[in-house]
Design brief:
Elements: H1 2-24, H2 26-31, H3 33-46, H4 55-61, H5 69-77, H6 84-112, H7 116-148, H8 155-168, H9 170-179, H10 184-206, H11 209-213, H12 220-223, H13 229-237, H14 251-272, H15 280-296, H16 299-302, H17 307-324, H18 339-363, H19 367-379, H20 384-390, H21 397-421
Helix pairs in contact: 1-17, 3-17, 6-14, 6-15, 6-17, 7-8, 7-18, 7-19, 7-21, 8-9, 8-10, 8-19, 8-21, 9-21, 10-18, 14-15, 15-21, 18-19, 19-21
Length: 422
């Protein structure tokens, strides 16, 4: 269908345009291609340029990204959905395919040029920040529960889901929702408010958070000056340098890096089918991260000049797609009757952030590591390179991926236990 072809071209060509505009405009370069991609996606998804599912369609989606073909046909045939929803479902399938390709290809590309030995020196701060993030989240969920819980139906289950979604994203949210037998309406509303508030919080983390946190927390380069500060700063400045990516002489490196990344993605995807559907994403992330790190220790792969900017290109593609899927108008539906769930989610997101920054101040954790830990747990590993690109520090990528993976591993258990406890 023509609209799907045009939409795919939009997703893959807009990043090229943004990269070029950032190259010729100092002002846009300061904002960054990642932040611009997120803004354009939000505009496209919330002005009708890209059709999005309404509240009825979302009630059938639940935690799924799209509906199977037979299901959507049956719902249209029985009058529960309209024919236009078939096109929307195809758009959701396309978006899911692009996301499923962009991130698994981007992560190894981003890791190829990183120094694993250097990260091991940074690991202590990452582990500490993970612990502080988990403590901050639990405290915020408990305070919010006793503040808003009496006015929320199934409040203990909502608390459990919030623990899950902010330690491992939607996969953990879905797992906990099933384990606690949450009412579908409660699940949908919690997930919808999470998407809306999470969108605002993510924009905050990618734009003003670093500058704001620097007033309370030390800078990354100051804390880790023993790891060769000059080298760290030099790498940070080049995180969105795409000049060599578009030079003809750099094309062999582009194809070589892309080929290796695709092989790693294929191995991760193949291994994931040995596990149940709920754990496949975790297996893919673990596999491609591990193989990407192993590949980075090969000097020939580590020296490929275009691997990192190519990975950032796919991150920009991901940013456009994921932000275009956030439908801000959905919060209007049933907002008044469920406003306390909205307040609870809002409190947990920003309350845990405030607590985390306070603890980071006490334990002297730098601003960038704090931001990437919040990102990794709140939004899951795929968003780590996105925010690392926005704050222009690729040295926190491995830390963020490690924190996010540990969040995947422990989030479901913690959310179920807390839901049962409350």
């Amino acid at each position: 269908m023509l609209i799907l072809v045009l939409l795919a071209l939009f997703y893959f060509l807009v990043p090229f345009l943004l990269i070029y505009l950032c190259k010729i405009s100092p002002f846009l370069k300061r904002i960054g291609a990642v932040v611009l991609a997120y803004a354009i996606g939000l505009i496209a998804g919330n002005t009708g340029l890209i059709p999005t599912p309404g509240i009825v369609f979302r009630s059938f989606l639940k935690a799924d990204s799209s509906l199977p073909k037979e299901t959507i046909n049956n719902l249209i045939a029985t009058g529960q959905l309209v024919h236009h929803d078939y096109l929307i479902n195809q758009i959701l399938v396309l978006q899911d395919i692009i996301i499923s390709i962009a991130i698994p290809v981007a992560i190894p590309l981003l890791l190829f040029s990183l120094d694993l030995r250097k990260w091991l020196k940074l690991a202590k701060g990452a582990v500490l920040s993970l612990i502080l993030a988990m403590v901050s989240l639990i405290v915020a969920v408990f305070i919010g529960y006793y503040w808003f819980g009496p006015k929320i139906e199934e409040a203990p289950k909502v608390a459990g889901m919030l623990i899950g979604v902010y330690t491992g994203g939607t996969p953990n949210l879905a797992a906990i929702g099933s384990a606690l037998n949450v009412n579908p309406n409660t699940f949908i509303l919690t997930h919808t408010y999470d998407l809306i508030i999470g969108t605002v919080a993510l924009l905050f983390l990618m734009t003003v958070a670093q500058r704001l946190f620097h007033t309370f927390l030390p800078r990354f380069g100051v804390v880790h000056k023993a790891e060769n500060r000059m080298q760290l700063e030099g790498e940070d400045e080049n995180i969105e340098n795409f000049d060599k990516l578009f030079q003809r002489k750099g094309l062999p490196d582009v194809f070589r890096a892309l080929g290796i990344a695709i092989i790693i993605f294929a191995i991760g995807g193949g291994l994931s089918f040995l596990f149940d559907k709920e754990n496949r994403l975790l297996v893919v992330i673990l596999t491609i991260t591990t193989l990407g790190l192993i590949a980075s220790m090969n000097k020939r792969i580590n020296k490929i000049q275009n691997s990192f900017p190519l990975g950032m290109y796919f991150i920009i593609v991901f940013s456009v797609v994921i932000s275009s899927m956030a439908n801000l108008s959905n919060m209007i539906d049933n907002f008044t009757s469920t406003i306390n769930i909205f307040y609870y989610v809002l409190f947990v997101v920003f309350g845990s952030m405030v607590i985390h920054v306070g603890l980071s101040k006490i334990f002297k954790v730098d601003a960038d590591t704090t931001i990437i830990a919040i990102t990794a747990l709140t939004y899951s590993p795929p968003f780590v390179p996105t925010v690392a690109g926005a704050i222009k520090n690729k040295n926190v990528i491995i830390s963020g991926l490690a924190i996010g993976i540990l969040g995947y591993a422990f989030g479901s258990y913690l959310g179920i236990v807390l839901g049962r406890l409350l």
